[in-house]
Amino acid sequence: MTDPRQAIAARAARELGDGDVVNLGIGIPTLVVDYLPPGVKVHVHTENGLLGVGPTPNPGEVDPDVINAGKLPVTAIRGSSFFSSADSFAMIRGGHIDVAVLGALQVDQHGRVANWTVPGQTVLGVGGAMDLLTGAKRVIVTMTHMTRDGRPKIVEECTLPLTSSRSVDVVVTELAVFRVVDGRLVLTELAQGLDLETVRRKTAAPFAVDLGLRRDR
């Protein structure tokens, strides 16, 4: 898979388990729905008020009234449910989301996320990420390893505002998978054909290495 965004989404999808209620954030997370593992039943939630998001529609099948939180067209599977944004956030804040898949601008050495910046810059506001970091039982970050100008996104300390003091559980990039264990990043998987020194060179935060560590759901 040559597109790094698609590769990241495909790898993140493998972190999901049967029966999970999963919120997909804006950006790379929205692609995860197209890579759900066969035989695994996942209930995909979008914060603008839909539970039961299906695969991305083909161009001729787009319904402009069925969109996700990023205003991109989605499909609704049979048995899906539509509701208000207030009810949607009640689900999030009430602890009814099993997994949140979020994008990020930076992740620090403790697994804390910065996913927004000041108005007029890359992102205009924090959106629902603050609520998801508080309410979701498990949080997965999906992002490219570097910025467009070649700076690491995994840093010792975030220089952008932290979205929450909570650490995420997993960070998936096109280069590696990190898990947060006891408040520290642990590299648990390298992308195929990649060596550890490449990841070290492109990561600006300290991390441990345990390539045998499995996820704990």
TrEMBL record:
Gene this chain is encoded by: scoB
Database matches in InterPro entries: 3-oxoacid_CoA-transf_B, CoA_trans_fam_I, NagB/RpiA_transferase-like
Source species: Kyrpidia spormannii
Top class in the EC scheme: transferase
Name recorded for this polypeptide: Acetoacetyl CoA-transferase (Subunit B)
The keyword Transferase is assigned to this record: yes
Source taxon at top rank: Bacteria
PANTHER family with a match to the protein in the record: KETOACID-COENZYME A TRANSFERASE, SUCCINYL-COA:3-KETOACID COENZYME A TRANSFERASE SUBUNIT B-RELATED
Alphabetical UniProt keywords: Transferase
Pfam families: CoA_trans
GO terms assigned for molecular function: succinyl-CoA:3-oxo-acid CoA-transferase activity
Family: Belongs to the 3-oxoacid CoA-transferase subunit B family.
NCBIfam families in UniProt: pcaJ_scoB_fam
Documented EC number(s): 2.8.3.5
